[in-house]
Amino acid sequence: MARILVTGGSGMIGNEVVKQLLRAGHKVHVLDLYPIKIEGITHFKGSILEKESIMHAIDSCEYVVHFAALLGVANSTRNPLECLDVNILGTRNVLECCVANNIKRIIFSSSSEVYGDALRVPIKEEEVFQPKSEYGASKVVGEEYIKAFSKKFNLDYVILRFFGVYGPLQVNNFVVPLFVHNVLNDIPLQVYGDGKQIRAFTHVEDVAAATVKAIFSEQASKQVFNIGNAASETNILELAKLVLKVSGKGEEPVLVPFENSDRTKEREIFKRVPDTSKAKDILGFEAKVGLEEGIRRMIEYRKALL
Ligand SMILES: NC(=O)c1ccc[n+]([C@@H]2O[C@H](COP(=O)([O-])OP(=O)(O)OC[C@H]3O[C@@H](n4cnc5c(N)ncnc54)[C@H](O)[C@@H]3O)[C@@H](O)[C@H]2O)c1
Fold first, then answer.
1. Global pTM?
2. Which CATH superfamily does the domain covering 3-164+202-227+275-287 fall into?
3. Tens of pLDDT, residues 162-194
């Protein structure tokens, strides 16, 4: 049994990680701006921008899963300074507190956004960084800070680059929950550009399972892993059609030019699929929840709330 602090534990991925850690018998502390509706954990309300809050929450913990962040390309583009503050200075604060508390290992949630439009797809961990957004750039800096802290203070870490995570608790400004929300409310599904942007969507349960493995795997020490579901590769137009099919609706998605959306062609990533062979070899990670099944579960969950 270990004691683990999850920053951002009230969020979509954090919730699922907390549940899986509790099921495995661990003690969990959560530091978040918002509460969490899970029994059996210790919740600390506070910000990673305040070191006292982190010091309070990290007390007696052996591991830290650092999820707290300002998320989403559109959101971080609207709030660039807040994104840089939370994702860079906040991460730096968390690292300082890890060192001060002799934390055994920190798990950092990085993102496929660090690759931008990768030169080689499926993307391997060695691919160069070409972030196109403040969010992507903030994750690059977070990763580099962790490596620097590790060298200087011998802090152990694992960096996980998540690809297109989705799950029932995700807010509706991400594409999968947005399509599900719209389909359940009879709003036509809008697809930006020609809808040929390729993605590999990964169910939150798979991402959480990879995170738990990363905490305890000896071989994972100071490694970087892509975490995603390459088998669920699809494009956004096909995704919209799949949501319509699973929900039993007959309408066709509507194509909307980038100019009429909150996205721009320049910032769009056109093909993003992970190579997860390293995570398979070292962590024993394999995504289990297929896209159709994940969408079905999200629709059922959200229907029950209507
Ligand atoms: N969702 C994805 O597709 C995806 C992809 C790649 C990486 N990630 C990363 O995974 C992590 C978790 O993402 P998520 O999808 O669960 O996001 P989320 O927005 O659901 O959760 C983030 C949590 O962080 C908390 N938070 C934000 N600012 C904070 C602060 N200053 N102090 C304390 N808590 C704060 C929020 O309240 C929220 O509960 C993030 O670091 C994100 O960048 C997510």
1. 0.96
2. NAD(P)-binding Rossmann-like Domain (3.40.50.720)
3. 999 999 999 998 999 999 999 999 999 999 999
